[in-house]
C-alpha cells in the first residue's frame, strides 16, 4: 500500500519520479504527489486520483530540481483529497510515508498544543511537523530525524528531504518495506525493486528498524539502536522493460494470456520431465519428518492454499490446516512440534501474512514461503523459499500468480508425498507427466476465449452471480467470485455446491447466473444435481465442464473444457473464471487494472 520513491540525483528528478510512480501505482492510486528541492527550497505538486492527474498538473506547472520524493497513495487516514496527498511538507521538510502511525493522535495533540497548524487529516503530516519541531528546536538533521523516529509507533516506511540540504535524504523502515538503490553519483530510495527498476539494479533491502542517511556518493545504514550496520547489496533482476502491457489492453489481460508460459517456466524449475522427478531447492529440513502443514495467506493466495489442502491431504496424507492470515495469529493457533508453516504471497509483503509468518517462526515451525517477489520480506525471513517465477504481476487482480502458486504447490505436494512414502517413483513420474501437460491445455482454453467472452458479456448486466463447485473446485468457485466482484463490482459469492440449499438457494431466480464448476468424474454428478436444483428455480446455469452435452437442455450456457487429470484441473479451471471476470469488467467499462478502493500490495493490517 502506497508507493514511495526518492531520488538524490544529478538530473531533473520529476520525469524520473513519474516513471517510478507509474510502476508503483499498483500499490495505490487514490492520489499522487511529488516534491523537489531546488535552490534549497521545497516545492511540491499533488493531485487526487490516479497518476495521470498529477502528470497533467506538472505539465501545467513544472517542478525543477534534481532531488525529489514522490508518492502514490492508498488512503488510510483521511479521504483522497489534495490536502491529504503526500508529500506532506512544511517550509523545512517534505515526507512521503507508507504505513500507519498508530500513536498519531497523541503526537498530534502535543503538536497542536505547541501551536502547529495542520492542513490535512493524515497521520503522515504528524511526522512532518514533528521533524520540523525538532529542527526548529536546533537539532541537526540527523539528530532531528533520529529523535522523530524514536517517537513513532506503528508501521512505516519513510523518505524525507530537508530544505537547504541538497545532498541529503533520509529513509526509515519499520514494518513497511524500503529499499536503497545505489547509483553512480546518485542514490535512491524506493518501496521495492519495481520502483527502482530503470534507476538502479544494485539494491539494499533495509531490515526492520533500520534507517538510512543518503548522500549522492555515500550511504550509512543504522539499526533501531542507532548503531551503524552493514546490509548486503543484492542485484535486482527486475528490468523496467518487464513492466509493459505489450499489445494487450490491460495488464490483467496480458497476465491471463501469459499463463501457459509462466506456468511452464515455474514447473520447469521444479520438475524434471525426463527423469520423471520433482526437485525442490535445498531443503533446510526433512520433508519426511513433517507431521502437519499449516497454510496461511490472504485473498487469491488463500484460495491457492485451499486447493493445496485437498492435494496434500489426498496425495501426501499429511494433515493440513488452512487459515486467512488476518485471522491466524489472533486465534492463538496450536502448532505441531516440527510442523511446517507455508505462506503464499505474490508480493511477499502482505502485512497480515508476514505477521503470521513471524508468529509461526516464534512458534517453532519450519517456515517456508511461496512468493513471486524474490527480494520480498517474506522471502528473506523464510527458512525455505519456493519461488513462483510468474514475472511481475501488475494488474491488481491476481491471475498468473494464482496458477503459478498452484504449480509450486502441486510440485511440493508430490515431493512431500514421495518423502512420506505415500507414492512410489512410478506415481511421481505419472504426476510429473500430468503437470507437464498443463501449459498446453491452458493455451487451448485461452484459444477459445471468444466463447467465454460472449457468456461474460451476457451476464455482465446481472446484479448477483454465484459460483459453485465441490471439493477442490470449491476454492476455484470462491476465487471466481472474488475476481468478478473486485474488478466488475458485480456482487458475487462462491459456494460449496452442496451448501446452497442451506440458505443461499433463496437468492436464486431468473436473474441470477450461477457458474457451475464441474469437471467430469469425482463429485461431478453431485454438483450436477445441485445445478438441477438451481435450474428448477429458474437460475441461469453456466457450466464449466468437459462433460459432453451439459447437464440439461434448459442450461443457459456451457464452456467446454478439455479433459485432464485431477491434479491439474484446478489450475485449468482458474482460467475460465478469470476470463469471465475480465470480460464482464470490460463490458461494464470498469478500470480493470486499478479497481476502486484496492491496491496490489497490502502492507497495512
Ligand atoms: C485478488 C488479489 C488479492 C491478493 C491478496 C494477497 O485478486 O489479488 O486478494 O491475492 O491481497 O496478496 P499477496 O499474494 O501479495 O499476499
Notes on the structure:
The protein has three domains: 3-245, Glutamine Phosphoribosylpyrophosphate, subunit 1, domain 1; 254-436, 3-Layer(aba) Sandwich (Rossmann fold); 444-588, Glucose-6-phosphate isomerase like protein, domain 1 (Rossmann fold). Helices cover 37% and strands 22% of the residues. The protein has 18 helices and 27 strands. An eight-stranded antiparallel sheet has the order 3-2-4-1-10-9-11-15. Strands 5-6-7-8-12-13-14 form a seven-stranded antiparallel sheet, with helices on one face. Strands 19-18-20-21-22 form a five-stranded parallel sheet, with helices on both faces. A hairpin with a 4-residue loop joins strand 16 (271-272) and strand 17. Helix 4 crosses helix 5 (141-151). It is globular, with a radius of gyration of 25 Å. The termini are close together. The mean pLDDT is 94. The structure holds fructose -6-phosphate (F6R). Residues 298-301, 345-347, 350, 353, 397-398, 482-483, 486, 602 line the site of fructose -6-phosphate.
What topology emerges from the helices and strands here?
Blueprint: E1 3-8, H1 13-24, E2 31-38, E3 41-48, H2 51-60, E4 67-73, E5 88-89, E6 93-101, H3 104-113, H4 123-136, H5 141-151, E7 154-162, E8 169-174, E9 179-182, E10 187-190, H6 193-196, E11 202-205, E12 211-214, E13 219-222, E14 228-229, E15 234-235, H7 251-257, H8 259-270, E16 271-272, E17 277-278, E18 293-297, H9 299-316, E19 320-324, H10 325-328, E20 340-345, H11 351-362, E21 366-371, H12 377-381, E22 384-385, H13 400-419, H14 425-447, H15 449-459, E23 464-469, H16 473-488, E24 491-496, E25 513-517, H17 524-535, E26 540-545, E27 557-560, H18 569-588
Parallel strand pairs: 18-19, 18-20, 20-21, 21-22, 23-24, 23-25, 25-26, 26-27
Antiparallel strand pairs: 1-4, 1-10, 2-3, 2-4, 5-6, 6-7, 7-8, 8-12, 9-10, 9-11, 11-15, 12-13, 13-14, 16-17
Helix pairs in contact: 3-4, 4-5, 8-13, 8-14, 9-13, 9-16, 13-14, 13-18, 14-18, 15-18, 16-18
The structure holds fructose -6-phosphate (F6R).
Amino acid at each position: 500500500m502506497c508507493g514511495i520513491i526518492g531520488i538524490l540525483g544529478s538530473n531533473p528528478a520529476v520525469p524520473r519520479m513519474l516513471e517510478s510512480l507509474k510502476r508503483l501505482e499498483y500499490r495505490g492510486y487514490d492520489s499522487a504527489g511529488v516534491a523537489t528541492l531546488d535552490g534549497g527550497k521545497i516545492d511540491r505538486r499533488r493531485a487526487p486520483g490516479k497518476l495521470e492527474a498529477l502528470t497533467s498538473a506538472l505539465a501545467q506547472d513544472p517542478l525543477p530540481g534534481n532531488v525529489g520524493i514522490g508518492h502514490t497513495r492508498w488512503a488510510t487516514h483521511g479521504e483522497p483529497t489534495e490536502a491529504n496527498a503526500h508529500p506532506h511538507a512544511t517550509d523545512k521538510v517534505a515526507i512521503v510515508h507508507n504505513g500507519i502511525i498508530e500513536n498519531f493522535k497523541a503526537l498530534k495533540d502535543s503538536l497542536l498544543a505547541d501551536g502547529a497548524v495542520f492542513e490535512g487529516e493524515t497521520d503522515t503530516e504528524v511526522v512532518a511537523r514533528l521533524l520540523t519541531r525538532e529542527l526548529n528546536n536546533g537539532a541537526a538533521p540527523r539528530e532531528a530525524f533520529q529523535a522523530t523516529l524514536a517517537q513513532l509507533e506503528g508501521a512505516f516506511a519513510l523518505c524525507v528531504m530537508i530544505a537547504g540540504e541538497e545532498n541529503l535524504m533520509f529513509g526509515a523502515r519499520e514494518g513497511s518495506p524500503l529499499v536503497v538503490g545505489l547509483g553512480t553519483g546518485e542514490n535512491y530510495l524506493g518501496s521495492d525493486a519495481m520502483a527502482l527498476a530503470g534507476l538502479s539494479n544494485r539494491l539494499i533491502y533495509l531490515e526492520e528498524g533500520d534507517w538510512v542517511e543518503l548522500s549522492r556518493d555515500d550511504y550509512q545504514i543504522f539499526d533501531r539502536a542507532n548503531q551503524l550496520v552493514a546490509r548486503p547489496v543484492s542485484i535486482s533482476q527486475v528490468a523496467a522493460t518487464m513492466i509493459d502491457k505489450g499489445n494487450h489492453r490491460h495488464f490483467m489481460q496480458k497476465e491471463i494470456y501469459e499463463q501457459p508460459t509462466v506456468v511452464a517456466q515455474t514447473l520447469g524449475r521444479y520438475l524434471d520431465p525426463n527423469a520423471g522427478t520433482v526437485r525442490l531447492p535445498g531443503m533446510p529440513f526433512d520433508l519426511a519428518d513433517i507431521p502437519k502443514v499449516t497454510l496461511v495467506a490472504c485473498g487469491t493466495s488463500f484460495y491457492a492454499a485451499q486447493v493445496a489442502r485437498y492435494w496434500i491431504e489426498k496425495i501426501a496424507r499429511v494433515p493440513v490446516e488452512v487459515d486467512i492470515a488476518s485471522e491466524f495469529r489472533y486465534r492463538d493457533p496450536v502448532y505441531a512440534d516440527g510442523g511446517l508453516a507455508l505462506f503464499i504471497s505474490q508480493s511477499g509483503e502482505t502485512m497480515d501474512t508476514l505477521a503470521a509468518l513471524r508468529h509461526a517462526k516464534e512458534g517453532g515451525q519450519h517456515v517456508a514461503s511461496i512468493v513471486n517477489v524474490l527480494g520480498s520480506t517474506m522471502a528473506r525471513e523464510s527458512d525455505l523459499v519456493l519461488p513462483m517465477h510468474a514475472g511481475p504481476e501488475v494488474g491488481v487482480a491476481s491471475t498468473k500468480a494464482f496458477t503459478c502458486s498452484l504449480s509450486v504447490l502441486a510440485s511440493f505436494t508430490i515431493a512431500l508425498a514421495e518423502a512420506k512414502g505415500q507414492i512410489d517413483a512410478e506415481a511421481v513420474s505419472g504426476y510429473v507427466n500430468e503437470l507437464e501437460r498443463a501449459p498446453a491445455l491452458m493455451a487451448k482454453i485461452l484459444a477459445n476465449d471468444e466463447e467465454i467472452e460472449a457468456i461474460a458479456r451476457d451476464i455482465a448486466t446481472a446484479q448477483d452471480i454465484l459460483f459453485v463447485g465441490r471439493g477442490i473446485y470449491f476454492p476455484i468457485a470462491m476465487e471466481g467470485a472474488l475476481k468478478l466482484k473486485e474488478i466488475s463490482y458485480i456482487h458475487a459469492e462462491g459456494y460449496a455446491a452442496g451448501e446452497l440449499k442451506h440458505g443461499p438457494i433463496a437468492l436464486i431466480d431468473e436473474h441470477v447466473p450461477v457458474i457451475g464448476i464441474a469437471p467430469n468424474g469425482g463429485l461431478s454428478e453431485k454438483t450436477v444435481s445441485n445445478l438441477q436444483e438451481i435450474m428448477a428455480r429458474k437460475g441461469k446455469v453456466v457450466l464449466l465442464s468437459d462433460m459432453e452435452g451439459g447437464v440439461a437442455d434448459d442450461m443457459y450456457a456451457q464452456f467446454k473444457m478439455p479433459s485432464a487429470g485431477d491434479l491439474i484441473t484446478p489450475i485449468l479451471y482458474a482460467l475460465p473464471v478469470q476470463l469471465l471476470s475480465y470480460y464482464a469488467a470490460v463490458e461494464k467499462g470498469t478500470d480493470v487494472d486499478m479497481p476502486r478502493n484496492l491496491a496490489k500490495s497490502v502492507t497495512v493490517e
